[in-house]
Design goal:
Elements lengths: L1 H18 L2 H17 L8 H15 L1 H6 L7 H4 L4 H37 L13 H31 L14 H28 L1
Length: 207
Protein backbone atom coordinates (compact mmCIF):
# COMPACT_ATOMS: atom_id res chain seq x y z
CA UNK A 1 0.00 0.00 0.00
CA UNK A 2 2.67 2.51 1.02
CA UNK A 3 4.77 1.52 -1.97
CA UNK A 4 1.98 2.34 -4.41
CA UNK A 5 1.20 5.63 -2.64
CA UNK A 6 4.85 6.62 -2.92
CA UNK A 7 4.88 5.68 -6.63
CA UNK A 8 1.73 7.69 -7.38
CA UNK A 9 2.88 10.71 -5.37
CA UNK A 10 6.28 10.75 -7.07
CA UNK A 11 4.75 10.33 -10.53
CA UNK A 12 2.21 13.11 -9.96
CA UNK A 13 4.89 15.41 -8.53
CA UNK A 14 7.30 14.79 -11.40
CA UNK A 15 4.65 15.41 -14.06
CA UNK A 16 3.20 18.42 -12.27
CA UNK A 17 6.56 20.10 -11.79
CA UNK A 18 7.66 19.33 -15.34
CA UNK A 19 4.55 20.85 -16.90
CA UNK A 20 4.70 23.83 -14.54
CA UNK A 21 7.43 25.19 -16.84
CA UNK A 22 4.72 25.82 -19.42
CA UNK A 23 3.84 28.95 -17.47
CA UNK A 24 7.13 30.42 -18.73
CA UNK A 25 6.22 29.64 -22.33
CA UNK A 26 2.74 31.10 -21.85
CA UNK A 27 4.08 34.25 -20.19
CA UNK A 28 6.62 34.73 -22.98
CA UNK A 29 3.98 34.30 -25.68
CA UNK A 30 1.53 36.72 -24.07
CA UNK A 31 4.28 39.24 -23.29
CA UNK A 32 5.60 39.10 -26.83
CA UNK A 33 2.10 39.60 -28.22
CA UNK A 34 1.51 42.65 -26.02
CA UNK A 35 4.82 44.17 -27.11
CA UNK A 36 4.44 43.68 -30.87
CA UNK A 37 0.74 44.61 -30.82
CA UNK A 38 1.03 47.89 -28.93
CA UNK A 39 4.64 48.92 -29.51
CA UNK A 40 5.10 47.79 -33.11
CA UNK A 41 1.46 47.67 -34.23
CA UNK A 42 2.08 44.19 -35.63
CA UNK A 43 -0.04 41.60 -33.76
CA UNK A 44 0.76 37.94 -34.16
CA UNK A 45 -1.56 35.26 -35.48
CA UNK A 46 -0.52 32.62 -32.96
CA UNK A 47 -0.33 34.19 -29.46
CA UNK A 48 -3.96 33.50 -28.57
CA UNK A 49 -3.57 29.83 -29.48
CA UNK A 50 -0.33 29.54 -27.51
CA UNK A 51 -1.93 30.98 -24.37
CA UNK A 52 -4.94 28.65 -24.66
CA UNK A 53 -2.86 25.56 -25.34
CA UNK A 54 -0.25 26.23 -22.65
CA UNK A 55 -2.79 27.13 -19.98
CA UNK A 56 -5.06 24.21 -20.78
CA UNK A 57 -2.18 21.73 -20.74
CA UNK A 58 -0.78 23.16 -17.50
CA UNK A 59 -4.21 23.04 -15.86
CA UNK A 60 -4.93 19.47 -16.93
CA UNK A 61 -1.52 17.96 -16.19
CA UNK A 62 -1.33 19.59 -12.76
CA UNK A 63 -4.57 18.01 -11.54
CA UNK A 64 -3.07 14.80 -10.15
CA UNK A 65 -0.28 16.72 -8.38
CA UNK A 66 -2.87 19.01 -6.79
CA UNK A 67 -4.87 15.98 -5.67
CA UNK A 68 -1.78 14.39 -4.09
CA UNK A 69 -1.26 17.61 -2.11
CA UNK A 70 -4.92 17.73 -1.03
CA UNK A 71 -5.22 21.06 -2.81
CA UNK A 72 -8.59 20.78 -4.53
CA UNK A 73 -11.51 22.83 -3.23
CA UNK A 74 -13.82 21.38 -0.60
CA UNK A 75 -16.19 22.66 2.10
CA UNK A 76 -13.43 23.04 4.67
CA UNK A 77 -15.61 24.95 7.14
CA UNK A 78 -17.49 21.68 7.77
CA UNK A 79 -14.85 19.11 6.83
CA UNK A 80 -12.20 20.42 9.21
CA UNK A 81 -14.45 19.90 12.25
CA UNK A 82 -14.63 16.14 11.69
CA UNK A 83 -12.24 13.58 13.09
CA UNK A 84 -9.67 12.12 10.64
CA UNK A 85 -11.55 8.80 10.55
CA UNK A 86 -14.83 10.54 9.65
CA UNK A 87 -13.05 12.57 6.98
CA UNK A 88 -11.53 9.41 5.53
CA UNK A 89 -14.87 7.57 5.47
CA UNK A 90 -16.60 10.45 3.70
CA UNK A 91 -13.71 10.86 1.23
CA UNK A 92 -13.67 7.13 0.50
CA UNK A 93 -17.39 7.11 -0.23
CA UNK A 94 -17.24 10.19 -2.46
CA UNK A 95 -14.27 8.85 -4.43
CA UNK A 96 -16.34 5.88 -5.55
CA UNK A 97 -19.57 7.82 -6.12
CA UNK A 98 -18.17 10.84 -7.96
CA UNK A 99 -14.42 10.77 -8.56
CA UNK A 100 -13.82 7.45 -10.33
CA UNK A 101 -16.92 7.61 -12.58
CA UNK A 102 -15.95 11.17 -13.56
CA UNK A 103 -12.33 10.29 -14.26
CA UNK A 104 -13.25 7.20 -16.28
CA UNK A 105 -15.68 9.32 -18.32
CA UNK A 106 -12.89 11.86 -18.86
CA UNK A 107 -10.51 9.17 -20.14
CA UNK A 108 -13.03 7.47 -22.45
CA UNK A 109 -14.48 10.70 -23.84
CA UNK A 110 -11.03 12.27 -24.16
CA UNK A 111 -9.83 9.23 -26.10
CA UNK A 112 -12.77 9.51 -28.48
CA UNK A 113 -12.13 13.21 -29.08
CA UNK A 114 -8.37 12.71 -29.35
CA UNK A 115 -8.56 9.89 -31.90
CA UNK A 116 -11.10 11.80 -33.98
CA UNK A 117 -8.95 14.93 -33.88
CA UNK A 118 -5.83 13.01 -34.94
CA UNK A 119 -7.81 11.40 -37.75
CA UNK A 120 -8.50 14.64 -39.61
CA UNK A 121 -5.55 16.69 -38.35
CA UNK A 122 -7.59 19.27 -36.44
CA UNK A 123 -6.28 22.84 -36.37
CA UNK A 124 -7.27 25.82 -34.27
CA UNK A 125 -10.19 27.92 -35.46
CA UNK A 126 -9.38 30.79 -33.11
CA UNK A 127 -6.80 32.42 -35.37
CA UNK A 128 -5.75 32.50 -39.04
CA UNK A 129 -2.48 30.72 -38.18
CA UNK A 130 -4.22 27.34 -38.21
CA UNK A 131 -2.05 25.89 -35.45
CA UNK A 132 -2.41 22.07 -35.14
CA UNK A 133 -4.13 21.11 -31.91
CA UNK A 134 -4.89 17.40 -32.38
CA UNK A 135 -1.85 16.40 -30.33
CA UNK A 136 -3.07 18.46 -27.39
CA UNK A 137 -6.42 16.67 -27.37
CA UNK A 138 -4.55 13.61 -26.08
CA UNK A 139 -3.59 15.64 -23.00
CA UNK A 140 -7.14 14.99 -21.80
CA UNK A 141 -6.46 11.25 -21.77
CA UNK A 142 -3.05 11.62 -20.11
CA UNK A 143 -4.50 13.86 -17.41
CA UNK A 144 -7.31 11.39 -16.77
CA UNK A 145 -4.90 8.45 -16.43
CA UNK A 146 -2.74 10.39 -13.97
CA UNK A 147 -5.82 11.32 -11.94
CA UNK A 148 -6.86 7.67 -11.92
CA UNK A 149 -3.45 6.56 -10.58
CA UNK A 150 -3.48 9.28 -7.93
CA UNK A 151 -7.10 8.60 -7.03
CA UNK A 152 -6.24 4.98 -6.23
CA UNK A 153 -3.46 6.26 -3.97
CA UNK A 154 -5.92 8.61 -2.24
CA UNK A 155 -8.29 5.70 -1.61
CA UNK A 156 -5.40 3.83 0.01
CA UNK A 157 -4.76 6.92 2.15
CA UNK A 158 -8.37 6.83 3.28
CA UNK A 159 -8.07 3.15 4.23
CA UNK A 160 -4.82 3.87 6.10
CA UNK A 161 -6.50 6.72 8.01
CA UNK A 162 -9.54 4.61 8.91
CA UNK A 163 -7.20 1.96 10.31
CA UNK A 164 -4.81 4.25 12.20
CA UNK A 165 -6.82 7.40 12.89
CA UNK A 166 -4.23 9.65 11.24
CA UNK A 167 -3.79 10.93 7.69
CA UNK A 168 -0.71 9.81 5.84
CA UNK A 169 1.30 12.82 4.70
CA UNK A 170 2.50 13.18 1.13
CA UNK A 171 5.48 10.85 0.71
CA UNK A 172 7.30 13.01 -1.84
CA UNK A 173 7.81 15.90 0.60
CA UNK A 174 5.87 19.00 1.56
CA UNK A 175 6.99 21.46 -1.11
CA UNK A 176 3.53 23.00 -1.41
CA UNK A 177 1.53 24.37 1.47
CA UNK A 178 -1.60 26.45 1.84
CA UNK A 179 -1.05 30.01 3.02
CA UNK A 180 -3.50 29.52 5.87
CA UNK A 181 -1.54 26.56 7.25
CA UNK A 182 1.74 28.44 6.94
CA UNK A 183 0.36 31.50 8.76
CA UNK A 184 -1.06 29.35 11.55
CA UNK A 185 2.29 27.63 12.02
CA UNK A 186 4.07 30.99 12.14
CA UNK A 187 1.56 32.28 14.68
CA UNK A 188 2.02 29.20 16.86
CA UNK A 189 5.78 29.55 16.63
CA UNK A 190 5.59 33.21 17.61
CA UNK A 191 3.28 32.44 20.54
CA UNK A 192 5.63 29.71 21.73
CA UNK A 193 8.58 32.09 21.50
CA UNK A 194 6.69 34.76 23.47
CA UNK A 195 5.73 32.20 26.13
CA UNK A 196 9.37 31.17 26.46
CA UNK A 197 10.42 34.80 26.89
CA UNK A 198 7.72 35.32 29.50
CA UNK A 199 8.88 32.22 31.40
CA UNK A 200 12.45 33.44 31.26
CA UNK A 201 11.49 36.86 32.61
CA UNK A 202 9.43 35.28 35.39
CA UNK A 203 12.33 33.02 36.36
CA UNK A 204 14.68 36.00 36.40
CA UNK A 205 12.35 37.99 38.68
CA UNK A 206 12.01 35.06 41.06
CA UNK A 207 15.76 34.93 41.43
Amino acid sequence: MLGYIRFADNLSAWVGKAFAWLIIVMAFGVGYEVFVRYALNSPTAWALDVSFIMYGTLFMMGGAYTLSKNGHVRGDFIYRTWSPRTQAKVDLTLYFIFFFPGVLALILTGWKYGVRSWGYGEVSVNSPAGIPIYQFKMVIVAAGVLLLFQGIAQVMRCIYCIRTGDWLASLDGDDVEETEVLLMRQADSQNTHEDQLADTETTAKDR
